[in-house]
Design a protein that fits this description.
By secondary structure, the protein is mainly beta. The chain has one helix at 3-17; strands at 26-29, 37-50, 60-65, 68-74, 79-87, 92-97, 104-106, 115-117, 120-122, 127-132, 137-141, 145-149, 160-169, 182-184, 190-192, 197-204, 219-224, 230-236, 241-244, 249-250, 254-259, 264-269, 287-290, 295-297, 314-319, 334-336, 345-353, 359-370, 384-387, 393-396, 415-420, 435-438, 446-454, 460-469. Strand 33 (446-454) and strand 34 form a beta hairpin.
């Protein structure tokens, strides 16, 4: 790359001619790109703040092109500004770092003379672990990530190194935590990504300088994720785009992959253009009790409906015949029961709608009994869960509950107990109780869990779930 040489030639020309325009509108430069690349002048302002809204003092803003730093700005209070500086129209990368914080990037499209305003949010590293040089390293992140580094993966020239990590869930966190969102489609066109999750893995020496993975070495990552059919990409700082990671292995609880890149990773769903309807399941012949003003919510009759993309389905319910005369033959979040329903078997319909507005329904019949009915609770378990074990771990029965209900007992008054079917730890967890305890001997296995739900009348029912232990 010849940016510095071209600048030097330009300055020499200015000195020899004894005059030079104060503002350079564009600079031509030869790079590894196939055509001559032209930088343009533009303005940039913004601020760097933490998740509490405070300015991040000492944040370093680097303006990069083709992997080279054109210049850098260090903030004193989190704010920054520059006027009439050089940018590439389409390949500018802005990198923001601060000690103890996860990096942030932006890849703006820039026009000549434009005034850009970009604000960056930053969060402190969730996890920092220290490992001895030349030994296997396992790095756990509390938000369901595990990274494994073989002995030869990292070389520091010192006795130890640190692994840092961070995870972001853009389902509820601000997307300002990652401003770069461009990738390239198979036809070579730039596209904008809609990230569901972003996570960071880095390795640093004792001075917190960033390190790289040794040549011909890789590390392994295992992530628990609820993104359906995930596609994983890493951020290429030189090109300013996100690149797909090959060899993703989907698991029941997330995905695994191997990489040699210590950088930001993003997760998108293959369901961006979802056209698949949800799969509805209704309970059949369940008993529900009537008391004055009883409302029957739609999710009470859901027997494990699911969608290939959406884990937060909208559930609506209606009667097929409005016997109570209150308009409940139209869909709503719940329907009303009336005294005339007692002793009847009524037909109801539950509608499921996903985020892409795809829908489907199921029809079932339910029995209405007088208040204080003696029907058993409906026990409903999560289908599969995963636990990270590093020494004894205690799990509560409520961890395995998925919308269990009872016709006469409020949800908060139900009693939940659980047990293992096989107690490999020998700690009595094969007997029903409010908790079970996991141990290291169960790592790498999938165990069966039974959940028991008991109502105020001491009626009970059970369901089973699988627990993957890593």
């Amino acid at each position: 790359m010849s940016f510095n040489k071209n600048i030097l030639v330009l300055l020499m020309f200015c000195l020899l001619a004894f005059s030079c325009q104060k503002e350079v509108e564009s600079i031509s430069m030869e790079t590894e790109f196939p055509e001559t690349v032209e930088l343009i002048a533009a303005n940039l302002t913004g601020e760097v703040i933490d998740l509490e809204g405070n300015g991040v003092a000492g944040a370093l803003i680097e303006i990069l092109f083709d992997g080279e730093v054109l210049r850098s700005i260090t903030t004193t209070d989190g704010s920054f500004s520059e006027v009439n500086q050089a940018y590439h129209p389409t390949h500018t990368v802005i990198k923001v770092t601060a000690p103890g914080f996860t990096p942030n990037f932006a890849t703006p499209q820039v026009e000549a003379g434009q005034s850009l305003s970009i604000n960056f949010s930053m969060d402190k590293h969730e996890e920092f672990t220290t490992h001895n040089q030349g030994e296997e390293a396992e790095h756990y992140n509390v938000n369901n990530m595990l990274a494994y580094f073989p002995p030869a993966a990292i070389e520091t020239g010192a006795s130890a190194y640190g692994v840092v990590s961070q995870t972001f869930d853009f389902g509820y966190q601000t997307t300002d935590l990652m401003q770069a969102d461009r990738s390239i489609d198979p036809a070579g066109n730039l596209i904008t990504l809609d990230f569901k999750e972003v996570f960071y893995l880095g390795v640093v020496n004792e001075l917190e300088d960033e390190l790289s993975v040794e040549p011909n070495q890789t590390f392994n990552v295992s992530l628990i994720s609820d993104v359906t059919d995930p596609q994983v990409l890493y951020f290429d700082q030189k090109r300013g785009v996100w690149i797909h990671v090959a060899g993703i292995e989907n698991t029941a609880s997330g995905f695994n992959f191997s990489s040699d890149k210590l950088t930001m990773y993003g997760v998108v769903s293959a369901c961006a253009n979802d056209t698949q309807s949800p799969t509805p399941y209704c309970f059949v012949g369940a008993d529900y009790s009537y008391d004055s003003g009883t409302e029957l919510p739609a999710d009470v009759i859901d027997a494990g409906s699911f969608d290939d993309c959406d884990t937060n389905l909208t559930r609506l319910i209606r009667r097929t015949s409005d016997d109570c005369g209150v308009g409940d033959d139209s869909f709503g979040p719940s329907l009303s029961l009336c005294p005339e329903d007692i002793g009847k078997n009524i037909e109801v319909e539950m509608m499921l709608i996903d985020d892409a507005r795809n829908s489907d329904y199921c029809i079932t019949n339910i029995n209405i009994v007088a208040g204080g009915g003696t029907g058993d609770p409906i026990a409903s378990c999560i289908s599969l869960s995963t636990a990270l074990v590093d020494g004894p771990v205690t799990l509560w029965a409520q961890d395995f509950n998925f919308q269990s209900s009872d016709s006469s007992t409020a949800d908060e008054d139900l009693i939940f107990e659980l047990k293992k079917e096989v107690d490999a730890c020998g700690n009595g967890s094969d007997n029903f109780g409010p908790t079970i305890e996991l141990c290291d001997v169960e790592k790498g296995t999938i165990i069966d869990i039974t959940l028991r739900v008991t109502d105020e009348d001491n009626n009970s029912s059970t369901c089973t779930a699988e627990l993957r232990i890593i």
